[in-house]
Amino acid sequence: MSETFNAIVAEEADGKSKASLKPISVGDLPDNDVLVDVEYSTLNYKDGLAVTGAGRICRSFPMVCGIDLAGTVAESGAAAFKPGDKVVVNGYGMSEAHWGGYSQKARVKSDWLVKLPSAFTTQEAMAIGTAGYTAMLCVLALEHNHVAPGSGEVLVTGAAGGVGSVAVALLAKLGHTVVASTGRPETHDYLSDLGAGGFIDRAELADEPKPIARERWVGAVDSVGSKTLANVLSQMAYGGCVAACGLAGGMDLPASVFPFILRGVTLAGIDSVMAPMDLRIEAWERLATDLPKGKLNAMTTVEPMSKVPELAAAILKGQTRGRVVIDVNA
Ligand code: NDP
User: Ligand 1 test: best mutation among 191, 192, 199, 224, most atoms within 8 Å of CB?
Assistant: First the structure.
């Protein structure tokens, strides 16, 4: 019998899915061309949905959860990768249609791999993880839509979460004046240290949205959706841009078209899962230059894989702060 190793595996019973720590073996892994010795994965909101079964993320069972991973190539059938290469995978349907990163070994498609920038260790890459790489995609979208440092205040919603924390640190490093929207006043010192220059209570953005409101933000990164995103849109300054990536507050969008047709506001949709490879590489290269390591360390905690079920429930309740790295070998 081949040697077993640990993974967080979702299984379905009575129409409900739930994940737990289980032993699996290399023979169980899917038939992809690169075998990776996984070192770290991370905890993202989507992982919370998949592991608890609160959202229908896994499309088949059994499913190894974990939407991202970083590790070392052990075997490769692709010329572009060789044993010993340090690699990162984000998204591509891992934990949805394909087995993911909460596993000590993973067999993945070479097309999904990004070579780890030399600036990062595998642990740092996962401190960034999908949430941080998504935050960078949001910042790139604001830049492509001409939101320039010094032009006014940029809002980050869900600021104390994973995407929000990295977005605050990146925008501040790039010279933007960052206002953080959070429901947790106890995170103000933490967010100030990351670079937030001001705060608003998230309750202010949870009221019934007006079709249009006083112009306030030149740019915004929104990980909350629903009324929050509708309120943010109504408050955008002329020509401003909102990068919308999340639904922590709900998947609806009760907004009007006024911000678009009266103020030329842009709503930039951000998808990390199927983002094209050139954009991924650009995002990781920019993270290497624009995300201060000290700030990354300040927003990161490292937890063993056995705690994933407990942490998955906590992230859905908005109880985790910043980035949670999962050490799959601890
Ligand atoms: P986190 O749970 O770490 O952060 C979400 C934050 O949103 C919380 O910390 C909290 O911030 C705020 N929040 C939570 N619940 C509510 C609520 N009911 N109303 C208003 N604010 C709320 O998650 P992540 O940062 O990992 O992900 C954030 C969102 O982005 C998720 O919806 C996730 O699915 C999405 N996402 C999308 C990606 C994409 O490719 N488009 C990739 C990665 C993430 P605070 O306490 O500061 O108020």
Answer: 224
Give the model confidence (pLDDT) of 225-249 as tens digits: 999 999 999 999 999 999 999 999 9
The percent of residues in the chain predicted with pLDDT above 70, rounded, is 100
pTM for the predicted model, two decimal places: 0.94
Q: How far apart are CA 177 and CA 154, in angstroms?
A: 6
Is the pLDDT score of 102 beyond 60? yes
Q: Give me the pLDDT at residue 15, please.
A: 87
CATH architecture of structural domain 4-116+299-327: Alpha-Beta Complex (3.90)
Residue 32 Cα to ligand 1 midpoint, Å, equals 31
Dist. CA 147–CA 72, nearest whole Å: 38
- 173 membership: H or E segment, kind and range: helix 162-173
Structural domain boundaries of the chain? 4-116+299-327, 130-269
What is the C-alpha separation between 142 and 125, in angstroms, rounded? 23
The fold for domain 130-269 equals: Rossmann fold (3.40.50)
Pocket probe for ligand 1: among 45, 95, 168, the residue whose CB has the most ligand atoms within 8 Å is: 45
Report the atom number in ligand 1 closest to the C-alpha of 163: 25
Which atom of ligand 1 is closest in space to residue 271's alpha carbon? Answer: 40
